[in-house]
Design brief:
Elements (H helix, E strand, L loop, with lengths): L4 H11 L3 H21 L3 H10 L13 H9 L3 H8 L12 H21 L10 H9 L9 H11 L3 H13 L9
Helix pairs in contact: 1-3, 2-3, 2-6, 3-5, 3-6, 4-5, 5-6, 6-7, 6-8, 6-9, 7-9
Length: 182
C-alpha cells in the first residue's frame, strides 16, 4: 500500500471538520478492522477504507465520493478507491472484492446502530440485535438511513441482518468511551 493510516487521518481531517462525520468515519473504520480480522484480510487497508469512505462528503457533497476516489487513485490506491466508489449500491459500481462488500455492509448499518444506541439509557452497553431490528422497522427513526442498503450489505456477506448487527454491536461496545456510548 502507498498510503498509511496517518496519511489517511490527515486526509480525513483536512476534508472533514464536523464531529458527527469524524465519529462516523471512526466507527466505520473500527467495524472494517473487525471485518478484516474476521475474513482474514488486510486490516490496514480495510481500516483506511472505512476511515475515508465519506472523507469528501462535507467539503464536496455534490461530488461525493468522486473527490476522495480520484485522490486515492492518484496515490496508487485503486482497491481502496474502487471500494469507496461503490460503497452505495445504487451507484452501480460492481462489488468484486471482500473490501468492496464489507464497506457496504459496514457503512449505513454502523451509523444506524450508533443512532439507536444514543437514545438508550445504557447506550451501547447491553444492546441486543432485537432492539436494533425493532428500531429498523420504525421508518421515522434515523429516516435518512437507507434500509434497502443495510439489507444489501448483509446479503453481500451472505449473512442474515441479525448476524451483521450481532457482529457490529460488540465492536462499538469495545470502544464505548471513545465513541461516547456510555
Amino acid at each position: 500500500m502507498n498510503i498509511n493510516y496517518e496519511q489517511a487521518e490527515e486526509i480525513l481531517k483536512d476534508m472533514t471538520k464536523t464531529t458527527s462525520l469524524l465519529r462516523h468515519a471512526r466507527t466505520v473504520e473500527l467495524v472494517m478492522r473487525a471485518m478484516a480480522r474476521h475474513f482474514e484480510e488486510d486490516e490496514e487497508k480495510f481500516a483506511i477504507t472505512g476511515l475515508l469512505h465519506d472523507a469528501d462528503y462535507e467539503k464536496h457533497p455534490d461530488q461525493h465520493p468522486n473527490v476522495i476516489v480520484k485522490q486515492l487513485n492518484e496515490m496508487g490506491e485503486a482497491d481502496i478507491a474502487h471500494a469507496i466508489a461503490g460503497h452505495y449500491t445504487k451507484w452501480n459500481v460492481p462489488r468484486e472484492s471482500m473490501l468492496d462488500k464489507c464497506i457496504v455492509a459496514a457503512d449505513e448499518l454502523t451509523g444506524f446502530i450508533y443512532a439507536a444506541a444514543l437514545i438508550r439509557p445504557t447506550k451501547i452497553v447491553g444492546m441486543k440485535a432485537k432492539s436494533v431490528l425493532k428500531k429498523f422497522k420504525t421508518k421515522t427513526f434515523a429516516a435518512s438511513v437507507d434500509r434497502d442498503e443495510v439489507r444489501k450489505g448483509a446479503e453481500l456477506l451472505g449473512w442474515e441482518l441479525r448476524e451483521l448487527i450481532d457482529f457490529i454491536i460488540p465492536v462499538l461496545e469495545a470502544h464505548k468511551e471513545e465513541l461516547e456510548l456510555v
